[in-house]
Amino acid sequence: MNNEEFRTNAHQVVDWMADYLANQEKYPVKPDISPGDIRNQLPEHAPAEGEDFQKIFKDFNEIIIPGMTHWQHPGFFAYFPANNSEPSILAEMLTATMGAQCMLWLTSPAAEELEERVMEWLRDILGLPKEFTGVIQDSSSSATLVALLTARERKSAFEINRRGFTGNERYRVYTSTQGHSSIDKDVKIAGIGIENLVKIEVDEVFAMRSDKLEEAIVRDIADGFIPLAVVSTFGTTSSTAVDPIGEIGRLCQKYNCWHHVDASYAGSALMIPEIRVLAPEIGRCDSFVVNPHKWMFTNFDCSAYFIRDKQSLINTFSILPDYLKTAEDKIVNNYRDWGVPLGRRFRALKLWFVIRTYGVSGMQQKIRDHIRFGQWLKEEILHTPGVEMMAPVPFNLVCFRFHPEGINDETQLDRYNEEMLQKINRSGKVFLTQTKLNGRYVIRFVAGQTHTSAEDVKKGWEFIKDQFLDFRKKKH
Ligand SMILES: *Cc1c(COP(=O)(O)O)cnc(C)c1O
Asked: What strand order describes the sheet that includes 133-137?
């Protein structure tokens, strides 16, 4: 493809992009296909000779698009959102065009310096203290891994990096029973061992019980373990519960533990001052992660990791072979030393485009709207017979279940809700996912895509209610 062909094709692609963004409701939100349906349409072998772009683009439209789940669809209320937005998409186009690998200051000075500045902006927008330094990671899973490794190295005076485990480092990590599965994964990767991840009981609103946390720490110390880190959550994945961050922080100080706050999803809401009262002491933690790729209008991947003691982070990860040495090493950030990968994408650009396009007040407005949608739906459910709320709604995730009159057996209710969810999701109009709370099957509804409107939420909920009425009729 030469430059002239690129220009022509790119215009065609951009037209497609604008059409796609304008017409998403024309697609089923989730494709109604079976495993293998897409793969079977793809040739077994790579083409020996190059193919024409028009042919590739046609296949993209005819094979790939019908097999996509459309995350920005107005009927998408599943999982947590993966936001994008027009400015973010434009920045991604530019990033791809420059094709820079941003591992060192020297390999793209502007990328490094923009990342520094944008992370300072974000830190201030979220109300985190000035002592924090930010770096963009690929995912929250990686950010939490980085936190645990840094905690591990600081605790061992950087000896595990040097000699490996000797067997004396009987470390324990704590999170609640509602902590994200990435913590389990990270504890395994960090060599701490899954049996040393202690899951602390939660209270009736699914927040970690700090009294139980202290009991566990004291018991572990008596048994010869070394408390290493606590991962608290600001907005759990199942129900957006908020752990008692302040109390957990005090316990971490008392027992000399690293305190990492997983605010992957709900952390974005900290840009709203009223929300900060949910965790006024959040800025006392050692590290903090929030995903702008979830709920801050920025394309996947963009995970904002903040750390108080940046030198420990760098000491944990730094490598300096001769071929990577540069004259500026002492005065600039070389982000290859701030996480696992050497190579890095230019991720700060999209965040910069997003923050500048919306402005702080524009972003706050969107988050406020989304929270209002969640509160609206909660009220609707409270006034709808046969449907019940299953958890509080601090943000915009609504956990509910259908509970038609006459069915009171819990196992039967689980099955009923599972069937309802399948029926709703088969429609292609609305896509929802489930979780378990207190062992019960619960349906989750999250209204948090960049362009989700009050009308979308209302339409989605009306559709769900209609499906319920229809299902009830058929069952009787
Ligand atoms: C989504 C989520 C994660 C994982 O995020 P990735 O960026 O996909 O690794 C971790 N913790 C919580 C609370 C989450 O909601």
From this structure: 133-137, 303-307, 287-290, 258-262, 226-233, 171-176, 197-200
Query: 402: Cβ below 6 Å to ligand 1?
Result: no
Dihedral sign for Cα atoms in the order 184, 185, 189, 190: negative
- Full-model pTM: 0.96
The sign one gets for the Cα dihedral 73, 79, 80, 84 is negative
Given this model, what pLDDT does residue 476 score?
62
175 lines ligand 1 (CB under 6 A): no
Q: Band the pLDDT of 298: cuts 50, 70, 90.
A: very high
Q: Please list, in sequence order, all residues whose beta carbon lies within 8 angstroms of the beta carbon of residue 442, skipping any fewer than 6 positions away.
A: 238, 239, 390, 391, 399, 400, 401, 417, 434, 435, 436
Q: CA–CA separation, 277 vs 464, rounded Å?
A: 33
Amino acid code (one letter) for 250: R
**In the structure encoding, which two tokens stand for residue 38, read together?**
């897409």
Answer whether 180 contacts ligand 1 (Cβ < 6 A). Answer: yes
| Amino acid identity, position 332 | V
CA–CA gap between residue 48 and residue 69 (Å, rounded): 31
Is pLDDT at 326 greater than 80 in this prediction? no
Beta strands 440-446 and 433-437: pairing type? antiparallel
- Atom from ligand 1 closest to the CA of residue 263: 13
Cβ–ligand 1 distance for 295 under 6 Å, the answer: no
DSSP output for 81-117 = -----HHHHHHHHHHHHHT---SSSTT-HHHHHHHHH
| CA 140–ligand 1 middle distance (angstroms) | 5
**What domains can be seen in the chain, in order of their start residue?**
1-30+69-99+347-476 (3.90.1150.170), 100-345 (3.40.640.10)
Ligand 1 midpoint to CA 265 (Å): 7
182 lines ligand 1 (CB under 6 A): yes
Q: Is the minimum distance from the CB of 303 to ligand 1 under 6 angstroms?
A: yes
Residue 327 reports pLDDT greater than 80: no
58, with CB counted inside 10 A (0-12, 13-18, 19+), is: exposed
Tell me the CA–centroid distance for residue 473 and ligand 1, in Å.
Answer: 39
CA 293 to ligand 1: nearest atom: 7
Cβ of 237 below 6 Å from ligand 1? yes
Q: Is the CB of 234 under 6 A from ligand 1?
A: no
Per-residue pLDDT tens digits for 234-251:
999 999 999 999 999 999
- Find the mean pLDDT for residues 186-204: 98
